[in-house]
Specification:
By secondary structure, the protein is α/β, with parallel strands linked by helices. A 7-stranded mixed sheet has the order 4-3-2-1-5-6-7, with helices on both faces. The chain has 9 helices and 7 strands, in the order E-H-H-H-H-E-H-E-E-H-E-H-E-H-E-H. Helix 3 packs parallel to helix 5 and helix 4 packs parallel to helix 9.
Length: 200
């Protein structure tokens, strides 16, 4: 039995931290997993900036409420879910993702959680499992699924490479150059066609 594993940000919805960077005028917050492979280092960097500027969970959630899925993402996801099981595996947080899941038709999401103080400031985060995307794909394989995966960033590569098929989607030129063996697509129709072929 097949299951498709998708990244969230950059694939189905815009990058949350980039949107927040633009809303707050803090350019340092544009840094994402496309730029920094070490997720713990990236989050420590982000939390320090939030603390410096006195920004908490509410301010981020207010921006997230304005974010819409990427054009064509909902239709792509709906078509995919008609064909097979789909799970979104993301390094985002449940406190961020709920309004986006509603706009995407409530797909299954595996993600992480934040630690938030009484003052609303984000003090830390809890990863669901170490190396969460790869670990989740391997766990699905261990219970009888064959995985097909797609993502755009450094932290998606092991998930993409671990299954019977994997694809980059709207990735960076550098990642595409470093991994010429992974098919890369820019349009949902092309990604859907590639996944459909892999399922057959």
């Amino acid at each position: 039995m097949d299951i498709v594993c998708l990244d969230l940000e950059g694939v189905l919805v815009p990058e949350i931290w980039i949107a927040f960077s633009e809303a707050t005028g803090i350019p340092e917050l544009r840094r994402t997993t496309r730029d920094e492979p070490d997720y713990d280092k990236l989050m420590a960097f982000r939390l320090n900036i939030l603390k410096e500027h006195g920004l908490g969970l509410k301010e981020i959630q207010d921006v997230i409420a304005t974010i819409e899925p990427l054009p064509g993402a909902r239709a792509f996801l709906d078509k995919l879910r008609e064909m097979t099981q789909v799970v979104i595996i993301s390094d985002t947080f449940s406190e961020f993702a709920k309004p986006l899941m509603k706009k995407l038709g409530w797909p299954t999401l595996f993600c992480n959680s934040l630690t938030v103080g009484e003052d609303g400031m984000i003090t830390g985060y809890q990863m669901r499992i170490s190396d969460s995307k790869y670990s989740t794909v391997r766990a699905l394989q261990n219970v009888g699924f064959e995985t097909i995966a797609s993502g755009d960033s450094f932290n998606d590569l092991k998930m993409i490479q671990a299954g019977k098929a994997g694809f980059l989607f709207r990735t960076t030129d550098q990642i595409r150059k470093d991994h010429p063996d992974i098919p890369a697509f820019e349009e949902f129709d092309d990604l859907l066609a590639a996944i459909t072929q892999a399922l057959s």
